[in-house]
């Protein structure tokens, strides 16, 4: 390749990730990492000395800079907007703070119908202008697709009801079982917010959407269908045709996959507990899959990382429509170099066996 070709190549838009979301043929398996911008990066830690997480999200230039860090360092095939699932919840009028290394903290947790009624419907342009401005900056800078995202109603509700991170979601489930009117009103309101917010992000330039339902695996499939499914179906039906593939991700969702397969989504994100061939058997061939290396593997020696990545790839690559990722986010102890080498390995191994 001549120097000139190299420059042109670097400038060309890399749509491998979007092609994989749509189950179209690709030259290699695309890869990105959940929480690919974060505390494992010295540059991120430096920025966090100056700004809180909320402040980063309020300053588009800094937020774009943080979003771009993993693109520059890791050679991943997609960027994910740097934000947090609680940012639009704050815009609904909830007093949320995000404590570094801990998670969201809510001053007045939701308990009654009146608390739900107080939640405002958001207008992304008016209420979250900094997020949309960050997306516009990123689209000018990026030559890989930009993923926008939102938290799903159950996962958002769990923080809003518990007041912070939880182990067993007892208060959340108590509302679900004992006060279904309050619960349904909350699901409804969050569902509307998510649809509006996702449409706003796509209009501003997001090219794919991931809905994070991290804690949904705490429900049985029967309860999922009864208490959450109607809202999820409405959200995804309304997002159909917005021109951006939709990814739905959760942890511990093995038993929920047989319900998820009825949702109008493009990509299903799975954690490391369900082998990708088993996930395929449960959801069929109408979805792309994303995942699912155990993030803990990133602490192992490089040859183990590559062996485990190969095991994941060998299952994932059996069908069209596969995106390599972790089964959950990168954690702070991981070395940047480990992810650099892993990306290189996924790219080279997947292009060699195609
Ligand atoms: O790079 C990226 O992936 C984008 C940034 C991003 C995303 C997608 C952040 C920044 N947060 C999120 C989503 C998010 N936030 C989820 C869904 C994904 C997941 O399961 O990880 C959840 C559950 C949260 C809530 C949250 N925010 C937690 C988890 C708490 C718990 O209940 O265990 C935490 C620790 C945060 C803070 C946070 N958000 C983002 C970062 C980088 C951090 C770490 C802290 C920091 O820098 O201070």
TrEMBL record:
Its EC number is 4.1.1.37. One of its GO terms (molecular function) is uroporphyrinogen decarboxylase activity. It is found in: Cytoplasm. Its main location: cytoplasm. It catalyses: uroporphyrinogen III + 4 H(+) = coproporphyrinogen III + 4 CO2. Transmembrane segments: none annotated. Coiled coil: none annotated. Substrate binds at residues 35-39, 84, 159, 214, 328. GO terms for cellular component: cytosol. GO terms for biological process: protoporphyrinogen IX biosynthetic process. Keywords: Cytoplasm, Decarboxylase, Lyase, Porphyrin biosynthesis. Pathway: Porphyrin-containing compound metabolism; protoporphyrin-IX biosynthesis; coproporphyrinogen-III from 5-aminolevulinate: step 4/4. The keyword Glycosyltransferase does not apply. Residues 30-39, 147-163 form the Uroporphyrinogen decarboxylase (URO-D) domain. Homodimer. Catalyzes the decarboxylation of four acetate groups of uroporphyrinogen-III to yield coproporphyrinogen-III. This is Uroporphyrinogen decarboxylase. It comes from Effusibacillus dendaii. The lineage of its organism: Bacteria, Bacillati, Bacillota, Bacilli, Bacillales.
């Amino acid at each position: 390749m001549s120097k000139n070709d190299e420059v042109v190549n670097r400038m060309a838009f890399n749509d491998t990730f979007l092609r994989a979301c749509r189950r179209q043929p690709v030259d290699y398996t695309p890869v990105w990492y959940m929480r690919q911008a974060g505390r494992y990066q010295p540059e991120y830690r430096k920025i966090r000395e100056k700004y809180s997480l909320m402040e980063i999200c309020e300053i588009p230039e800094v937020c774009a800079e943080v979003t771009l860090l993993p693109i520059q360092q890791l050679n991943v095939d997609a960027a994910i907007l740097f934000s947090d699932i609680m940012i639009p919840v704050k815009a609904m009028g909830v007093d949320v703070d995000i404590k570094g290394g801990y998670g969201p903290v809510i001053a007045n947790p939701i308990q009654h119908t009146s608390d739900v009624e107080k939640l405002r419907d958001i207008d992304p342009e008016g209420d979250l202008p900094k997020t949309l401005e960050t997306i516009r900056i990123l689209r000018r800078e990026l030559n890989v697709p930009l993923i926008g995202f939102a938290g799903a109603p159950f996962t958002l509700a769990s923080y809003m009801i518990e007041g912070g991170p939880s182990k067993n979601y007892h208060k959340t489930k108590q509302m679900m079982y004992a006060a279904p009117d309050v619960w349904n009103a909350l699901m409804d309101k969050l569902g509307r917010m998510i649809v509006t917010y996702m449409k706003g992000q796509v209009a501003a330039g997001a090219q794919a959407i991931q809905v994070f339902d991290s804690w949904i695996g705490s429900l049985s499939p029967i309860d999922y269908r009864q208490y959450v499914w109607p809202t999820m179906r409405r959200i995804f039906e309304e997002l159909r045709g917005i021109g951006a593939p939709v990814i739905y991700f959760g942890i511990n969702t093995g038993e929920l996959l047989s319900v998820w397969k009825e949702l109008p989504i493009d990509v299903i994100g799975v954690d490391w507990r369900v082998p990708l061939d088993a996930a395929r058997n449960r959801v069929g061939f109408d979805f792309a899959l994303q995942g699912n290396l155990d993030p803990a593997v990133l602490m192992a020696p490089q040859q183990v990382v590559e062996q485990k990545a190969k095991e994941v790839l060998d299952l994932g690559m059996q069908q069209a429509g596969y995106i390599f990722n972790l089964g959950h986010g990168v954690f702070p102890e991981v070395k940047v170099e480990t992810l650099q080498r892993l990306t290189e390995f996924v790219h080279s191994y997947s292009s060699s066996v195609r």
